[in-house]
Amino acid sequence: MSAAVLRLGTRRSRLALAQSGQVAAALEAAHPGLRVELVPIVTRGDRLRGDLARHGGKGLFTAELERGLADGSLDLAVHSLKDLPVSPPPGLVVAAYPPRADPRDVLVSEIAGDLAGLPAGAVLLTGSLRRRAQILACRRDLEVRPLRGNVDTRLRRWRRSGAGGVILAAAGLARLGVGDLPAHPLDPSLVLPAPGQGILALQVRAGGRAEALCRVLDHPPTVRAAVAERRIVAALGGDCTLPLAAWAEAGDGGAIHLRALLATADGERLARGEARGEEPEAVAAACLDALERDGARAVLEALRA
Fold first, then answer.
1. Looking at residue 60, what is its pLDDT?
2. Of 8, 24, 102, 261, which sees the most CB atoms within 10 A?
């Protein structure tokens, strides 16, 4: 294979292909003469139906791509960071975190512009335990029903269901160019984003030819946010079975404001933490201490029970 070609592994969903195509275009623009070839792959998570938590949670959307990197059939894989396990397989690294998209969740609804505007008893659709817990914590009178599938599938099922709304990630809608929806961003003080939401991770073989080529897309504020949020996930063992939220606002000057939340799925028990600083690891440690003081251990015990 020519040294001027990179094979980029991606899931086959429309969103995955869109965001991988954007990364490919950015790499080709940064390296004249380079060609990036998309290699669509169906992952186990794409094939499964129902509650993914029962099948192992994180890693279901990444394992096949990581095997391709390890065996050399792929040079690069683009992941949504929130899908990527915190402990990578040996020999693989994240070469770059491009600039983060909007990390917020959005309410797609034709009857209300925010959670407060929904009538009592309204049905909301979401496949996320994190979203479910926070919605119920502020609106226990709403009915939250499970929903999974790609963005197009969720929107189609919402329209057919007659539900009051569906909760989706702002970043996914933006990357798909979906601009004609009644989409209303949710205040992060009410619904804190998932760790890594809106961030893409460019994963490669350590020392491989793609690593240096991808570094040009690395965005330091996004790197700091990713490190801080992933420290929270690693410390609490978070995957899609855990209602865990974390959001680090990181500016160009180095300052980081990290907020995190751990909850039971019914929203009845929550622990919150918050910290500020400049070093992602230190800020994450301080935020974890704050979570502990606010009862995170008791919430974990309730979840395990």
1. 63
2. 261
